[in-house]
Design brief:
There is one protein chain. The two termini are 63 Å apart. Strand 3 and strand 4 form a beta hairpin. The strands form 2 sheets. The chain has a 6-stranded antiparallel sheet with strand order 2-3-4-5-7-8. The chain is built from 11 helices and 8 strands. It is an alpha+beta fold.
């Protein structure tokens, strides 16, 4: 008996150590959190959410890069030259010195046209007798425009990438929302896993207590000759087995806590205690309404439509790229030539020496293999996306139907599991009374204890499955993001580092 008492003391000591945790001390940080509080912390700290926000920023920068095609470019050049090389003729003179000061701007406009304006100035000094003005100042002003008439007509080649980038921003925004919603769902599922581990440990401790009570009762009865050694052995083995189950449940609780902390990316708490109570929920679902709303709200459905829109723009752009290059070119030029700079500029300004040019330039590839291949590739890409879109509609319908059925099944099963656990508890309670009156035996009590813990764990699992299937239903309907968007959480995302 002394040895048995020692073993019981050791087992109880282990249980006490496990109950307070390996790092239990006055500095232990325990977080008692509801499921909404857990989600709030997780959204603000989860790394995947932060990465999704960075992808939004990158998409915005990509749009700026595409729009930069319409940026105005200014240029400036200045040079000085002196030429005193020997020449076989005297027309150019034995000495030439000139300086050039030139500025201008170039810009592409949404019609696809390239516009350029330039202002050029030359200071020329030469020893040639054939120059009527020496030194001479030449000021020249030129404006030109090149407008595509076939390929890139209306600026389609320039504006298409911009429009695709604008749609990409919308798509990334939706993907970001979906990432946040996925994180919310994962945190909620991990939270219920923690509740499951917590309730499982609680149930295992309760059944362990019953096993210990049976062992203590048999020890006392053995002293008075009312119990046999076999009853002691059986009840002690039963206690050992349930003690082992408690150890396993304790480890699973720690694993569930660490998993949830990882999902939240919030290691501040050394231990998390969920405050949500596990209870039965009666569920009624309008499957037709759920299906319609799911199709309307599903972000993968919306993003696939946006991808098709992008592909359609790309098809039109690639179709236009097969056309020949034909450009309308128009140029106006005016200059002034005087012996001093102010007079040269004044003469140029009144356009007394104008020059006009109007022409058409035509270019076309003889085979055009690359443009044709790119066009065919864009058509195939669009066709692929359309087929994926049709398949996605079927996948969404199947997924939502499957989740709805899971919720209804889990709800019905949870109700039955609760009733079964109640009956098993009453069965054990009644048999325990019979045993204390001498009308039963240890083996029956142990079997009934096993039946009770099995029923209790099945009830806990059924209730957890119901909660998790409800989370999966909200996820399949894409409504989790909007639920938390109504709070202040999402608005804080942009302020997180």
């Amino acid at each position: 008996m002394i040895q048995m008492a020692q073993r019981m003391s050791i087992l109880l000591l282990i249980l006490i150590v496990l109950s307070v945790g390996n790092v239990a001390n006055s500095e232990e940080r325990i977080g008692k959190l509801s499921i909404d509080e857990t989600v709030e912390i997780g959204i603000l700290n989860n790394i995947r959410v932060k990465v999704a926000r960075l992808e939004q920023d990158l998409a915005g920068l990509d749009l700026k890069i595409e729009r930069s095609i319409f940026d105005t470019e200014a240029w400036f050049e200045i040079n000085w030259r002196r030429d005193k090389r020997a020449s076989i003729n005297s027309i150019g003179g034995s000495r030439v010195t000139d300086q050039n000061y030139n500025i201008g701007i170039d810009k592409k406009i949404p019609t696809g046209a390239d516009i350029s304006l330039s202002f050029r100035n030359q200071d020329l000094d030469t020893s040639s007798p054939f120059f009527p003005i020496d030194p001479a100042f030449v000021s020249d002003m030129e404006a030109s425009i090149t407008q595509p008439l076939l390929k890139n007509i209306g600026g389609i080649q320039d504006k298409a990438p911009i429009r695709i980038s604008e749609i990409e921003i919308d798509r990334i925004d939706i993907v970001t929302q979906d990432t946040i919603e996925e994180v919310i769902a994962e945190i909620k599922l991990s939270y219920w896993d923690l509740v499951f581990a917590q309730e499982t440990l609680k149930a295992q401790k309760e059944i362990l207590e019953k096993a210990q009570q049976l062992l203590e009762f048999n020890i006392e009865n053995r002293k008075s000759g009312l119990a046999e050694d076999v009853d002691i052995y059986a009840s002690e083995a039963n206690t050992e087995r349930h003690m082992n189950n408690v150890l396993v449940a304790q480890n699973e609780l720690v694993t569930a806590i660490e998993t949830l902390k990882l999902k939240m990316n919030y290691p501040y708490f050394s231990r998390i205690v969920p405050t949500e109570e596990l209870s039965y929920k009666s569920v009624f679902l309008d499957q037709d309404t759920i299906m319609r709303n799911a199709i309307k709200n599903r972000r993968d459905y919306i993003t696939k439509r946006l991808q098709i829109e992008q592909a359609d723009i790309d098809v039109h752009m690639k179709k236009n790229s097969r056309w020949p290059q034909m450009d309308l070119i128009a140029t106006f030029n005016a200059n002034g030539l005087k012996s001093n700079y102010p007079d040269a500029v004044a003469e140029m300004a009144v356009a007394s020496n104008p020059s006009y040019f109007l022409g058409v330039e035509f270019r076309f590839p003889l085979a055009n293999t690359k443009a044709k291949a790119q066009y065919q590739s864009s058509l195939l890409e669009k066709a692929r996306l359309i087929l994926e879109f049709r398949q996605l509609e079927k996948d969404i319908a199947f997924e939502v139907d499957d989740v709805v059925r899971a919720v209804l099944t889990n709800s019905a099963q949870a109700g039955k599991r609760i009733r079964i656990e109640e009956l098993e508890s009453k069965k054990l309670e009644e048999e325990d009374r019979n045993y204390r009156l001498g009308r039963s035996n240890s083996n029956i009590i142990i079997d009934y204890q096993d039946d009770l813990i099995e029923a209790r764990l099945a009830k806990i699992e059924a209730l957890i499955d119901l909660e998790k299937s409800l989370v999966n239903l909200d996820r399949s309907r894409n409504i989790l993001f909007d639920q938390y968007f109504q709070s202040h959480i999402i608005s804080q995302l942009g302020n997180t580092e």
